[in-house]
């Protein structure tokens, strides 16, 4: 009898999870149940599975609403019906088609109107729902005639009084209003709960026809779903046979290019993989991916294929990935095997500039009826919940700010704030809104509306109404199309080198960037700023500790930096063993055989699985549980816990000492949710090496491209510093030489107009466009005639030196600008056939302080360009040690003067500790550690230069200064405001620092790791 149930997927309306809904139905012995969430099918697959497990017949549908008004309830008679409902919603969501108030066109759907609003004439499939509290209205003669078309309507939205209050809060959040201002039509009735079926039938006993109608409708509705069959587009060419034929042809063509020496192992691997791919009907998936990559190559884009797909030699031969699985001993079964229950997917990265073009190609090629992004449920987040709920209660901003930080114990039990906390906690993990999955795309064989309705988020690509986990459960293999700035930097560098130097580089030829002596030297010294995955302070420190000088060590470094590996102590132990290969023993023969390449340390997901299988004797099925527990698809310790008992039982049977087994399992467990698969690390290493190759050989072009792609870990200033250290001459924006982005002429780097604060992007783009169309600007007056610009913006350009080509000092240009723009700003500018001769003015000479330009730069760009920050200090002292010599001062105290680049916060048991990154007066980088007790006396005070005093600790070739004292050093007063003391230090507030936070625990020290270095049998 319950054919209008809402779960919390009825966003900002429902209060019951799907599981809880079915639990209540079981408790009441309900035999048939209908899920009809508002304008969404998000929960129907979970609902169907759980109902089946509880022997409840599931009926699915949707409650159609428009602007809070219920139009009708749709119940699917079968799978065709849910497709019809999905199509209706999709046309409304994506095409803007109006929802029909009456008589929607369905052939396999039952429509139920509310008693308050129904058409005069009902179609065969249309009924009127009547609530128990509305039965007394049937005395009206105009309603009696409709009794043969009426059914029982007992909506379910809430469970308890608390739920009902929560529902009202959700409605107020949705309507962005105070709870006290809600109208009765804004929220559900308090009767929308489950009641005993017998009690419900008893209320309608005077109307047996209504009961019979309801039972008949529920009998007519069926929803069955085959979860085992793939739902993706089946074939690329039109048939399985022709797909396999094309895949085979492409694989062997690629084999000749990748392995020109007829590598026998490669041939055998190709043959083996092709058999598995054919048996699993996966040829089409490979070919669709290959086609996307082929289009990308045709467009001149660069991509990276990563993740477990890089374990496939077929993917390597097709150009989907650039990782040779033979070189790194990557086994195909990690990606695809006959026992695998769930299909894998390829992860493909493009530049952030190119990704939308790739997406458009996919949508255009396969059609909007067959392509969509995975959706994702954005949940109510802890801090934002209290703000949202607090607004409903009418709390002012100050109290809302407190709510986000203070615990509930801080409030009186009867206070409004306590109520906000109470209901806020109930909302945790509730879905709040649907959004687009970051990268997952579905390409379906059938019209995608057979499975889901689509929505159109602001991004402009449609999304399905379920997430990637549901997509996988119902048989979709997604295509992960990602974007990143690192690839943009590589791509732009290659183009810039060709444009400026006439040199063409095939950066996809990975052989040029895996064994270059100078690249290896840069790696070992951590000179990798700007290089994708290896530029952060932590990664550069790791590279130096390892003296990393080859590709394979870089692959390992890309994985051991991950939190799980580092937290378990295995990163620390790997560093020790790498530097001291003769000071440890493999504590079991299996570790020597399976993990010899990584000194017996588990570094990759594959290593954990190897040890679980070969040391622990676990079954392959348990290995797959481990794999999924360590991946983003099943990321939790609970999944690992399932195999724990099997592991120890098996270890005992194999005769392993209990202490050894416990230690091995501790290492396995620490990987939950954090480890990389080896192919993923290898993909990151390849891209990092490609970046490094360009940085080493074409440093100025590389840093210019890094700047134009928004940098990476650091702010723009740091990449500009790197360019200068590479020999570039950094010049301020110029209207005649500069572009919208930063550009380079030989060694002269002109900062882009995009970096000028207060210059809007349209004007910044227009200035070089007008110059290219009609020639260089001859003067300030000529510029003003050609570019529509306001006086304040023009003054900013003068202050930054954009008109220095005129040879006039800034004060003259400023006066001239005032004369030129004395009247109203002109909206339209154009060249004139005859220019009137300009009037010449003789202006007095004004003496300028040599550092005035630097302060203009700080104010407009956020950092000085014409001088170093050190030049602006009041002191001439530069420290007694430089960064390049720190390794000579192990355990000694040093005093240094340094400019702050970044700091990272790490919580400890005693408080927050900071790690700082700095440059010295010579421009070289070094790192510091700041413990909580020291920070209370010597805190950071924003960006700028500091005098540092501390003890050097050299840890495997990498020096860190543990700070004992620290003081921010004063800059000279701003000479532009020599007569205004209040303003003379304002510019310094613009000097920035990069601040990052982490919630990780401190990495364990050597004595805390306890990893055996001797044989344990």
Automatic annotation (TrEMBL):
EC number of the protein: 2.7.7.7
Alphabetized Pfam families for the sequence: DNA_pol3_alpha, DNA_pol3_finger, HHH_6, PHP
Origin: domain of life: Bacteria
Gene3D superfamilies: 1.10.150.870, Metal-dependent hydrolases (3.20.20.140)
Region (Disordered): 997-1017
Domain Polymerase/histidinol phosphatase N-terminal: 1-68
Any GO MF annotation of the entry: DNA-directed DNA polymerase activity
SMART domains: POLIIIAc
InterPro entries named in the record: DNA_pol3_alpha_NTPase_dom, DNA_pol3_finger, DnaE2/DnaE/PolC, DNAPol_HHH, PHP_dom, Pol/His_phosphatase_N, Pol/histidinol_Pase-like
GO process annotations (BP): DNA replication
Keywords, alphabetical: DNA replication, DNA-directed DNA polymerase, Nucleotidyltransferase, Transferase
Catalyses which reaction(s): DNA(n) + a 2'-deoxyribonucleoside 5'-triphosphate = DNA(n+1) + diphosphate
NCBIfam families: polc (TIGR00594)
Name this polypeptide is given: DNA-directed DNA polymerase
């Amino acid at each position: 009898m319950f054919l209008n149930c809402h779960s919390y997927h009825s966003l900002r309306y429902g209060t019951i999870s799907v599981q809880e809904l079915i639990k209540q139905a079981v408790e009441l012995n309900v035999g048939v149940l209908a899920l009809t969430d508002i304008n969404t099918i998000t929960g129907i697959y979970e609902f169907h599975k759980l109902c089946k497990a509880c022997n409840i017949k599931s009926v699915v549908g949707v409650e159609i609403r428009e602007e809070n008004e219920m139009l009708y309830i749709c119940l699917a008679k079968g799978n065709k019906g849910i497709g019809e409902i999905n199509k209706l919603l999709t046309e409304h969501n994506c095409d803007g088609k109006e929802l029909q108030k009456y008589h929607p066109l369905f052939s396999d759907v039952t429509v139920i109107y509310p008693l308050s609003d129904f058409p005069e004439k009902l179609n065969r499939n249309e009924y009127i729902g009547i609530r128990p509290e509305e039965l007394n209205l049937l005395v009206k003669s105009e309603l009696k005639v409709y009794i043969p078309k009426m059914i029982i309507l007992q909506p379910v939205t809430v469970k308890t009084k608390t739920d009902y209050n929560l529902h009202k809060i959700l409605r107020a959040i949705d309507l962005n209003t105070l709870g006290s201002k809600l109208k009765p039509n804004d929220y559900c009735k308090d009767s929308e709960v489950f009641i005993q079926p017998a009690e419900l039938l008893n209320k309608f006993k005077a109307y047996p026809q209504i009961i019979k109608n309801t039972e008949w409708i529920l009998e007519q509705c069926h929803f069955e779903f085959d979860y085992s069959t793939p739902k993706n587009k089946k074939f690329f060419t039109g048939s399985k046979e022709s797909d396999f034929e094309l895949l085979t042809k492409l694989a062997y063509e690629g084999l000749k290019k990748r392995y020109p020496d007829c590598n026998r192992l490669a041939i055998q691997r190709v043959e083996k993989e092709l058999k598995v791919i054919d048996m699993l009907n996966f040829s089409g998936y490979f070919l669709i991916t290959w086609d996307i990559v082929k289009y990308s190559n045709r467009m001149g884009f660069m991509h990276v294929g990563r993740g477990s797909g890089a374990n496939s030699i077929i993917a390597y031969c097709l150009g989907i990935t650039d990782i040779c699985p033979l070189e790194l001993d990557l086994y195909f079964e990690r990606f695809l095997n006959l026992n695998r229950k769930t299909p894998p997917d390829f992860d493909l990265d493009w530049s952030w500039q190119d990704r939308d073009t790739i997406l458009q190609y996919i949508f255009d090629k396969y059609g909007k009826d067959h392509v969509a992004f995975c959706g994702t449920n954005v949940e109510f987040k802890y801090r934002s919940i209290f703000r949202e709920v607090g607004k409903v209660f009418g709390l002012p901003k100050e109290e809302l700010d407190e709510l986000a930080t203070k615990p509930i114990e801080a409030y009186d039990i009867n206070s409004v704030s306590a109520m906000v906390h109470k209901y806020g906690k109930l909302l945790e993990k509730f879905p709040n809104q649907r959004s687009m999955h970051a990268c997952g795309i579905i390409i379906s064989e059938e019209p995608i509306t057979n499975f889901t309705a689509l929505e159109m988020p602001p991004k402009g690509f449609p999304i399905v109404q379920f997430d990637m986990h549901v997509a996988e459960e119902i048989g979709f293999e997604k295509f992960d199309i990602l974007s990143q700035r690192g690839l943009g930097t590589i791509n732009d560098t290659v183009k810039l080198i060709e444009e400026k130097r006439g040199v063409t580089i095939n950066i996809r030829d990975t052989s040029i960037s895996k064994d270059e002596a100078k690249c290896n030297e840069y790696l070992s010294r951590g000179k990798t700023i700007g290089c994708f995955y290896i530029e952060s302070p932590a990664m550069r420190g790791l590279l130096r500790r390892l003296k990393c000088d080859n590709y394979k060590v870089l692959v390992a470094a890309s994985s051991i930096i991950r939190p799980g590996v580092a937290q378990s102590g295995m990163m620390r132990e790997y560093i020790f063993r790498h530097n001291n290969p003769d000071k440890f023993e493999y504590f079991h023969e299996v570790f020597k055989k399976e993990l010899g390449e990584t000194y017996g340390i588990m570094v990759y997901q594959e290593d954990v699985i190897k040890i679980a299988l070969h040391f622990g004797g676990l079954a392959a099925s348990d290995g797959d549980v481990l794999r999924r527990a360590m991946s983003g698809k099943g990321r939790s310790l609970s999944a690992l816990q399932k195999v724990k008992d099997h592991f120890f039982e098996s270890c005992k049977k194999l005769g392993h000492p209990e202490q050894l087994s416990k230690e091995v399992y501790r290492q396995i467990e620490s990987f939950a949710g954090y480890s990389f698969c080896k192919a993923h690390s290898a993909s990151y290493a390849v891209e990092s090496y490609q970046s490094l190759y360009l940085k080493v050989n074409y440093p100025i072009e590389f840093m210019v491209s890094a700047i134009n792609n928004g940098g990476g870990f650091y702010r723009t200033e740091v990449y500009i510093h790197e360019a200068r250290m590479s020999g570039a001459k950094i010049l301020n924006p110029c209207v005649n030489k500069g572009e919208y982005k930063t550009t380079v002429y030989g060694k002269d780097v002109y900062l882009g107009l995009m970096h000028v604060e207060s210059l809007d992007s349209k004007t910044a783009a227009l200035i070089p466009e007008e110059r290219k169309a009609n020639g260089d600007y001859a003067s300030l007056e000529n510029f003003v005639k050609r570019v529509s610009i306001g006086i304040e913006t023009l003054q900013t350009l003068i202050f930054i030196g954009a008109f220095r080509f005129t040879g006039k000092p800034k004060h003259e240009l400023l006066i001239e600008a005032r004369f030129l723009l004395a009247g109203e700003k002109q909206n339209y500018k154009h060249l004139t056939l005859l220019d009137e001769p300009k009037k010449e003015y003789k202006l007095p000479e004004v003496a300028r302080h040599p550092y005035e330009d630097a302060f203009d730069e700080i104010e407009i760009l956020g950092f000085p360009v014409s001088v170093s920050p050190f030049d602006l200090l009041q002191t001439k002292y530069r420290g007694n040690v430089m960064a390049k010599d720190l390794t000579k001062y192990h355990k000694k105290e040093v005093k240094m003067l340094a400019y702050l680049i970044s700091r990272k916060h790490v919580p400890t048991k005693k408080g927050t500790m900071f790690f700082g990154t700095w440059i010295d007066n010579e421009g070289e980088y070094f790192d510091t550690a700041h413990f909580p007790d020291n920070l209370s006396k010597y805190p950071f005070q924003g960006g700028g230069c500091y005098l540092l005093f501390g003890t050097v600790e050299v840890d495997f070739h990498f020096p860190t200064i543990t700070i004992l004292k620290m003081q921010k050093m004063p800059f000279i007063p701003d000479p532009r405001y020599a007569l205004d003391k209040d303003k003379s230090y304002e510019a310094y507030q613009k000097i920035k620092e990069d601040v990052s936070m982490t919630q990780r625990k401190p990495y364990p020290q050597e004595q805390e790791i306890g990893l055996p270095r001797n044989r344990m049998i």
